[in-house]
Design a protein that fits this description.
19 helices, alpha/beta, 7-stranded mixed beta sheet, 6-stranded antiparallel beta sheet, about 40% helix
Length: about 625
C-alpha cells in the first residue's frame, strides 16, 4: 500500500469514528487534527514556514496513526490511557463500548437468573463523572440494576460497596496515581459471578479476555442503547457503612491514645481527603493537619509533577508542614486513596538512605516493604490476641517483588505465607487472606471489608501503631529495629531502565535470561529462576509470568521483570543483613548502613547488566 493509500485508509477510519463519537469535544479535536494532517505538502520545502507546515502536518498524521492503532486494550487492569479522541485513547466512545461489553458478559454469565447488579464509582479526574454516567446509561438500558456512588469517592469505597451490596460487578473510573491527562476504568467481579476467595476483587483471566471479546463485537457507539435515567444514585449511607467498617480496626487502646498523636495528612489533590479525615477523627485522632495546598480534589494536580507518593518531591509539602508543626507522623494517600505512604522522622536516615532521601530535619518516607512489614506484624499480633487458636487457614500474602520479611513474620506467628504474581487482582484472591501487600504502597488490612488495597484502612492501622509506640516513648523507627532484631534487616530497592523502543523490553529480559550476571554485589549467583516457566511451592506455585529471579549466595535476591504500566524493565533488589537479637539501636543502625552499601553494589551490578551503567 502506498503512502497516499495508507493515508486515505486512515482518513476514512478517522471520519467514521468522528461520525460515531458521542462527545463533541473529542470529535472536534479529531477534526482539527484531520485538517492539519490534510495540509501535508508533497515536499518538506525550503523556507522555515514551509518546513514548519510540513512538520506540523506530518506530526498530526503520526498522532492520528497512533490513536487509530486499534481499540484501547481491555485487560486485567481494565482500561487506562490518555484522555483524547480515537479508539486508542480514553474517551466516551471507548467507555460506552467497554460498558456494553461488560453488560453482555454479565448477562451471559447470569443467563436465566435475576438481572445483574453493578455498582459504579468515580474519582475527580477529568471526564470521570461523564464516563461513570455513560456506564450507568449503557447498563441500565439492557436491564441491569445500577447503583451509582453519590459523588467522587475513593476506590476502596467502591470495592467495599461491591461486597456490602452483594453486587455482581463494580466499575471504578480512575487512573489512580497516573498523570493528569490520564483516566482509567477498573472492573471488579463478585456476587453470583465470582463466589470464591476473589469475590469483589479486580478481574483476572479469563474474565478479562471474555469481556474484551464482547467489547470487540460492538459495531458502533450508535448501536449501543443508552438509558436517559433509571439507575439509582446511592445516598451517603454507603460512605457511612465504609467508615463504620473501617473503624472496626481501631480498638479501645488505639482510641485512648489517639488524641496524643499529631498527624500531617495529604490526599495529593485526590478524593481520599474527606473520608480519611473522617475515619481518623472518629477514631479519636483530633490533631490532624491537612496540607492545605493539596487538600481538595483537583484533576490538574497543580503542586506535584506526578501525583504518586513514591515520586521525588510529591510529599515535600507534607514533610515541610510536619517539620514546622512538630508532627509525629505523615500520611500520604494517592489520588484515589487505594495506596498509602507513611513518613517518619529518622535521625539515622542519611546514614543508610543517603542525602537525597532524607528530607527536612531527618524526615523520610518509609519504603513500601517497611510499611508492609510493620502492618504485617500488627495484623499478626491482632490475630494472636483473639481468643482461641489461630485460624489454620489464615494467610499472609505478598507479591513476588515484595520483601521476604513478611514470610518470616508469618512463620513466627504460625500463619501461612503465600507469594503471588504482582497486582492486587492476585493478592486478594488468596484463600484465608488476613493481610496482603505489595511494595508499591498497596496494603489490604481488612479483606472482609475491601478485597483490594485500601490506603485509608492502612493509614488507620499505621496511626494506631504510631500512637501506641509514642505512649511508650518509641517511634516507628524503633519498631523497624525490632523487626530487624527478630528477622534480620531486610533492605529493598529498585533499578529500572526506560525504553523508547518497546521491542527492547522483551529483548532485554531475554538477553539477561541467556547471559545472566555470574556475581551480584560481589557474591555468586547460585540459582536463576525463569519465572516464564512458572514456579512450584507447597501452595501450588505461581503461573508463568515474564521475568527472572536471581538467588545469590549471600541471601541477596533480584527479580527482573517488565513493568506492567510503564515502558521499563525493573529490577527489584533485596539484601538481608544479620542482626543480633540483643543489638542496641546503634548496632541496628550500623547494620542498616552495611545493608545500604551492599544494596548499592547490587544496584550498580544490575545497572551494568541492563546496559545503563
Amino acid at each position: 500500500m502506498s503512502r497516499d493509500e495508507a493515508w486515505e485508509d486512515l482518513r476514512a477510519q478517522v471520519e467514521t469514528w468522528i461520525d460515531d463519537d458521542p462527545d463533541p469535544q473529542t470529535a472536534d479535536e479529531l477534526r482539527d487534527l484531520l485538517r492539519t494532517a490534510d495540509s501535508l505538502p508533497e515536499h518538506e520545502g525550503t523556507t522555515p514556514a514551509e518546513r514548519y507546515t510540513w512538520r506540523t502536518a506530518a506530526a498530526a498524521r503520526a498522532e492520528l496513526a497512533d490513536r487509530f492503532t486499534g481499540l484501547l486494550q481491555f485487560g486485567t487492569a481494565g482500561l487506562r490511557g490518555a484522555i483524547a479522541g480515537g479508539p486508542h485513547r480514553m474517551n466516551r466512545a471507548v467507555v460506552i463500548r467497554a460498558a456494553s461489553g461488560l453488560a453482555e458478559h454479565l448477562l451471559g454469565e447470569l443467563d436465566g437468573l435475576a438481572p445483574p447488579r453493578v455498582v459504579v464509582g468515580y474519582d475527580a479526574r477529568h471526564k470521570s463523572h461523564d464516563f461513570a454516567t455513560d456506564t450507568a446509561a449503557v447498563l441500565t438500558a439492557v436491564g441491569i440494576e445500577v447503583l451509582l456512588l453519590p459523588g467522587p469517592l475513593p476506590t476502596p469505597v467502591l470495592a467495599f460497596a461491591v461486597r456490602r451490596l452483594e453486587a455482581d460487578a463494580g466499575v471504578m473510573v480512575t487512573a489512580s496515581h497516573n498523570p493528569p491527562q490520564d483516566n482509567g476504568y477498573k472492573v471488579y467481579l463478585g456476587g453470583r459471578v465470582v463466589t470464591d476467595a476473589g469475590q469483589g476483587a479486580q478481574i483476572v483471566p479469563p474474565a478479562d479476555a471474555a469481556i474484551a471479546a464482547e467489547i470487540a463485537r460492538v459495531p458502533s457507539v450508535a448501536s449501543v442503547p443508552r438509558a436517559a435515567s433509571g439507575w439509582t444514585v446511592l445516598g451517603p449511607e454507603i460512605v457511612d457503612e465504609y467508615v463504620a467498617a473501617t473503624l472496626g480496626l481501631a480498638g479501645a487502646e488505639q482510641r485512648a491514645l489517639a488524641a496524643d498523636l499529631r498527624i500531617v495528612l495529604t490526599p495529593l489533590h485526590g478524593v481520599g481527603g474527606a473520608v480519611a479525615q473522617r475515619v481518623l477523627r472518629e477514631a479519636g485522632y483530633t490533631d490532624v493537619l491537612v496540607v492545605p495546598e493539596q487538600e481538595h480534589p483537583d484533576p490538574d494536580f497543580p503542586t506535584v509533577a506526578f501525583p504518586n507518593p513514591e515520586e521525588p518531591g510529591a510529599i515535600d509539602l507534607a514533610l515541610g508542614l510536619a517539620s514546622d508543626e512538630g508532627a509525629d507522623l505523615v500520611i500520604a494517600l494517592d489520588p484515589d486513596a487505594d495506596r498509602c505512604a507513611v513518613a517518619v522522622r529518622d535521625p539515622r536516615a542519611r546514614a543508610y538512605r543517603g542525602p537525597d532521601t532524607a528530607a527536612a530535619e531527618g524526615w523520610r518516607m518509609l519504603h513500601g516493604d517497611e510499611t508492609g512489614g510493620l502492618l504485617g506484624q500488627v495484623v499478626a499480633e491482632r490475630l494472636a490476641a483473639d481468643a482461641g487458636p489461630l485460624d489454620p487457614d489464615a494467610a499472609f500474602a505478598s507479591s513476588i517483588v515484595s520483601s521476604r520479611l513478611l514470610a518470616r513474620i508469618a512463620a513466627t506467628a504460625g500463619v501461612q505465607h503465600v507469594q503471588t504474581l504482582t497486582g492486587f487482582k492476585w493478592l486478594s484472591r488468596v484463600d484465608g487472606l488476613a493481610f496482603g501487600y505489595e511494595e508499591a504502597l498497596g496494603y489490604c488490612v481488612a479483606p472482609l471489608n475491601v478485597r483490594d488495597k485500601d490506603g485509608i484502612s492502612a493509614a488507620l492501622l499505621m496511626a494506631g501503631l504510631a500512637a501506641r509506640l509514642k505512649a511508650s516513648g518509641r517511634t516507628l523507627v524503633d519498631a523497624l529495629d525490632d523487626l530487624a532484631r527478630a528477622h534480620g534487616l531486610h533492605l529493598t530497592g529498585q533499578v529500572s531502565a526506560r525504553y523508547d523502543d518497546l521491542a527492547q523490553i522483551p529483548a532485554t529480559v531475554q538477553r539477561l535470561r541467556e547471559n545472566p550476571p555470574a556475581t551480584v554485589g560481589g557474591s555468586h549467583v547460585e540459582r536463576i529462576v525463569d519465572l516464564a516457566r512458572g514456579t512450584e511451592d507447597e501452595r501450588g506455585g505461581l503461573p508463568p509470568t515474564e521475568g527472572l529471579r536471581l538467588d545469590v549466595a549471600d541471601g541477596t535476591r533480584v527479580v527482573v521483570r517488565p513493568s506492567g504500566t510503564e515502558p521499563k524493565v525493573k529490577c527489584y533488589l533485596e539484601v538481608i543483613e544479620p542482626v543480633a537479637a540483643d543489638a542496641d539501636a546503634d548496632a541496628v543502625g550500623a547494620a542498616r548502613a552495611r545493608a545500604k552499601e551492599r544494596l548499592d553494589a547490587v544496584a550498580a551490578d544490575m545497572r551494568r547488566a541492563l546496559g545503563i551503567a
